[in-house]
UniProtKB/TrEMBL annotation:
Family classification: Belongs to the protein kinase superfamily.
Gene Ontology MF terms in the entry: ATP binding; protein serine/threonine kinase activity
Residue sites binding ATP per the record: 53
Stretches assigned to the Protein kinase domain: 26-253
Presence of the UniProt keyword ATP-binding in the record: yes
GO biological processes: signal transduction
Protein name in the entry: Serine threonine- kinase HT1-like isoform X1
GO cellular component, one term: cytoplasm
Catalytic activity: L-threonyl-[protein] + ATP = O-phospho-L-threonyl-[protein] + ADP + H(+); L-seryl-[protein] + ATP = O-phospho-L-seryl-[protein] + ADP + H(+)
Keywords (A to Z) from UniProt: ATP-binding, Kinase, Nucleotide-binding, Serine/threonine-protein kinase, Transferase
Top-level taxon of origin: Eukaryota
Keyword Transferase: yes
């Protein structure tokens, strides 16, 4: 896979034997989540309860290449960086389908947890505890030169007792030293730092360097949610939220 400092070179990517999952030993149960490019199921691996993420390969050669690259980055990052506030990586396989296996966190997403509480807010001590969990996970990534780029409540999972938050979904993570090669648009509008909006700040296809401060911006939005239990830029469409954030409109009341 190259040097220890380069986690995301897709051309060189190889799964280390210790992380290879035998698909014959996977039991896929009910679906517990779904994104644009993957579905997540509850399941078992070697009699251990796990979460099984199955990545859709795509319909075109371009889509297949992009999703294989994203899969490679996510597996490489998960296998290299571990932390108590990051979802625990168990293993992965590329054939017959791209699969990532992690610990199963039964508390659900932070988004669902907050929605179920509305209109009530978290106790301030709980909110601070969650914020510290998230900050520790991001600090760990940044100390390894990695930017998450998609920090939001949907990518933050709770333990069954709802006392600990763990960061998940590293498909958009990048080494900070490589961001000058990326187009700016990525992540999710409401939590995305202004410098990442290619549709607002850049001409189509133009590239712009940014750093780990984009995660700090997203963290601030999540922190506000933890305190107020409201959706940022509530009442706005995604595009309106994008323009508001890019031009530094204050979205909160």
């Amino acid at each position: 896979m190259g040097s220890e400092n380069r986690f995301y070179s897709e051309a060189e990517f190889k799964l280390e034997p210790k992380w290879l999952v035998d698909p014959k030993l996977l039991f896929v149960g009910p679906k517990i989540g779904e994104g644009a490019h993957a579905k997540v199921y509850e399941g078992k691996y070697k009699n251990q309860n796990v979460a099984i993420k199955i990545v859709n390969k795509g319909d075109t050669s371009e889509e297949v290449a992009k999703r294989e690259a994203r899969f490679a980055r996510e597996v490489a990052m998960l296998s290299k960086v571990q932390h108590k506030n990051m979802v625990k990586f168990i293993g992965a396989c590329k054939e017959p389908v791209m699969v990532i296996v992690t610990e199963l966190l039964l508390g659900g997403t932070l988004r669902k947890f907050l929605l179920n509480m509305r209109p009530r807010c978290l106790d301030m001590r709980v909110a601070i505890g969650f914020a510290l969990d998230i900050a520790r996970a991001i600090e760990c990534l940044h100390s390894h030169g990695i930017i998450h780029r998609d920090l939001k409540p949907e990518n933050l999972l709770l333990t069954a007792d709802h006392k600990t938050v763990k960061l998940a979904d590293f498909g958009l993570a990048r080494e900070e030293s490589l961001t000058e090669m990326m187009t700016a648009e990525t992540g999710t509008y409401r939590w995305m730092a202004p410098e990442l909006y290619s549709t607002v700040t850049l001409r189509h296809g133009e590239k712009k360097h940014y750093n780990n401060k984009v995660d700090a911006y997203s963290f601030a939005i999540v922190l506000w949610e933890l305190i107020h239990n409201k959706l940022p830029f509530e009442g706005m469409s995604n595009l309106q939220a994008a323009y508001a954030a890019a031009f530094k409109v204050i979205p909160f009341s």
